Request: fold
Amino acid sequence: MNFFNYVSSTLVPIKNIERELICPICKELFTHPLILPCQHSVCHKCVRELLLLNHEDSFDAGSECSLPGSPGPRSRVPSPSMERLDRLARSGAFGFGSMSSPGWRRGSVTPRITTFPCPGCQHDVDLGERGMSMLFRNFTLESIVERYRQAARAAVAIMCNMCKPPQQEATKSCMDCKASYCNECFKFHHPWGTPKAQHEYVGPTMNFRPKVLMCPEHEMEKVNMYCEVCRRPVCHLCKLGGSHANHKVTTMSSAYKILKEKLSKAIHYLISKEDQVKTQISHLEVLINETEEKGQLAERRTDENFERLFETLQERKFEMLRSIEQSRTRRLDQLRGQVDEYQGMLENSGLVGYAQEVLKETDQSCFVQTAKQLHTRIAKSTESLRTFHPVADPSFDEFVLDTSREETLLKELCFGGVPDPPIIDLSRSRVYNEGLVCWQLAEDTLATDHQVLEYRKLGVEQDEEEGGSRWRPTVPVYGPSTVVCDLEANSLYSFRVRSCRNSFYSPYSPEVTFHTPPAPVFGFLFNDKCGFSSERLTLSKLRDSVESAAGMAFLLAAERVQTGSYMGLDYIIGDTGISQGRHYWAFRVEPHSYLVKVGVASDSKLLEWIHNPRDTSSPRYDHDSGHDSGSEDTCYDLSQPFTLLTVGMGKVFIPKASISSATAGNDHGNRVLPMPQRIGVYLDYEAGRVYFYDANTMRCLYERQVDCTGTMYPAFGLMGSGKVHLEEFIAAKRLSYM
Reply:
């Protein structure tokens, strides 16, 4: 059986694919779906609702959105993406700008939003000034939705649009007239011998799509190419001078063949793995049941834990209240007894009254017998009167309960267990003499308190059995990155990170290694003064990237080739020179760049190049080394005041006279290497040598002697389309001093 026939014979019924036909915003079947730049589809009406907010919804955070012509708000299934859109719209994150900005329409107070998050992948979609007009309709998806609707309402026939009542059932639809006909009406409206007889017709349908897909940027042009960078169809004007001028494109037929073959193979692979998918579904169902059971068990255990806490608190509360009551009773009894004692000191009452009666006794022996004891009591009362002191303290400070620590512990109660480890992000981390290490936190619903990064140098003598020096931790980091200082040059370091939550530490992340460059980072930006050609080079605002566009100036220069005046490189240099020491810098060259020269050059040589540009088509100009000699081998021993390496079309071209053992020989395969993602340059001024590295692996690609008699500058030469970005860490270091 043919491969494509096999795929066709295994198609699933149309009714089983409903989940793929639902708009992620309105949760309904797609209606005129549009393809976003991220390749997800959204209903036309949903995009319009996001971009054309009315005045009330744009400025009143408490109002509901009611679009013109809409009978009222449409009920929807809430989704995180819609909530995020609502927050962005109400917080003004889309931006309204001034009345002269493209975001405003003349004569209207309604702001026009051009940026929103894709509900499928959450990436921001920027439609620019053209707004919805730049989006393609997804006619393929639209046709599938229509077939689904027809399958769902198979009992309801499509009626002829031309019949007078009673209408007949349609037998065909005309894609040019965008109408459905019965047999008689089709013959009447498409008579033989007329242009209408050549119209394209299909079976009855409600989906009338254009016969030819037109370019949204150039509305009169048909799309006939496919941009592999943007992954979308384009027309020839887009490629010649539009936004896809420097992008790689292919013919539509080639893209159709390749994509259809890839899709068919992917479908075949999925179908061949049906048993595996069913096994995994069964495993997931077991996990669902297990999750349900263990979730209920966790709830019961949580109830039990809190009940025990409540019981403990109740017991402690009862004991404390009982202690307070006993202390209160005892103190009251003591104070009341003291009150009674002092009451006796008053005249005609208590002790004083009794003493007065004793004084009336005339019998001396009887008086002495009674007065001795009485005098002792009165002396004590007199003494207590002079040194009055309550027998009990009314304060209950000893029963004041400080529960702040316990409250803090209760608030910090966490049943999340040990947090998941973060992952170090290799794409954003950079390590030089200082290291910027970034990581991604685990996708966890519970926040972490902080992270701790640890690093160590590998390959040292101490702790040789452990493979390197001891781990050195950083201070707690409250974010997704940190900077490590004082790293040794030309050394291999290992890094790992872990998270902390409520004093519980996660396992360590997988260790990653970085090789530091052989010298400290040299910070510079592009020089926009010396020899900079603003006609052919475009410099970024921060001067950390430069782009050469193959525009009109390049074409005019190419026209002069017939008269003997050839095109030359457009040079740009760093804004800081080197007159001593060892220095390292790194940069990125865009893969689509045609020709870029990178390296170093002296100030005198740069002046010569700028004022007397060389012809790149000259027979004495060699692309491999940048030298103007006709033979590299004869000039190899001569020290030149410059060295440039050729990079372009995704390749690095190693000069023939390279002394690197890895690229020795004159074989073309050894001299042409894949272009690294990042390229590093190391200049040793005193030794007079320059080295070129793969900055990701610190593998030396090429080295050469260079004459460092003057001030040396980082130098770049571009021809045709190309772009160079300085390494972010280097550019940031230079910007901090501006």
In short: The chain has 17 helices and 33 strands. The longest strand covers residues 492-501. The chain has a mean pLDDT of 75. The first helix runs from residue 3 to 9.
